[in-house]
């Protein structure tokens, strides 16, 4: 799959995360999706997630239960192998005490057959 199509799908992921639309997420994630979330995220939220349900339930939704943050992409870098590197900033707050969260991120996304297959996320975890 080419980088332009991967970017289109990733934009849909960011929008779905912002609105809490699980159905929209499920529509773009491949059944074999694998996500690697940054080590060092608080509350044990980092680590490998295999399958869309694991990524949503124990990844994105678990993070959303503790933090009201949005990914704000600032740079989209297409890779020669069809993947897309997205650099940006998470902005929001912790739900328990309202502290501000502002942390840089890099997401490397891959796709095949019209769906997203991989995410490798690096985040400035000290800012969470």
Oligomer: single chain
Distance separating the two termini: 33 Å
Relative strand content: over 45%
Low-confidence stretches: none
In the CATH hierarchy, the architecture is Roll
Percent of residues in helical segments?
A: 25-40%
Name the structural class: alpha+beta
User: What is the CATH top level name?
Assistant: Alpha Beta
- Look up the CATH topology: Nuclear Transport Factor 2, Chain: A
Which geometry do the CA atoms define? globular
Describe this structure as you would to a colleague.
The protein is an alpha+beta fold and 128 residues long. It has a single domain (3-127), classed as Nuclear Transport Factor 2, Chain: A (Roll), CATH 3.10.450. Helix content is 30%, strand content 45%. The protein contains 3 helices and 6 strands. The chain has helices at 3-19, 22-28, 52-66; strands at 29-37, 47-50, 67-78, 84-94, 100-112, 115-123. The protein has a 6-stranded mixed β-sheet. Strand 4 (84-94) and strand 5 (100-112) form a beta hairpin. Helix 1 (3-19) packs antiparallel against helix 2 (22-28). The protein is globular and about 40 Å long. The protein starts with a helix and ends in a 5-residue tail after the last strand. The mean pLDDT is 94.
Give a quick set of tags describing it:
128 residues; alpha+beta
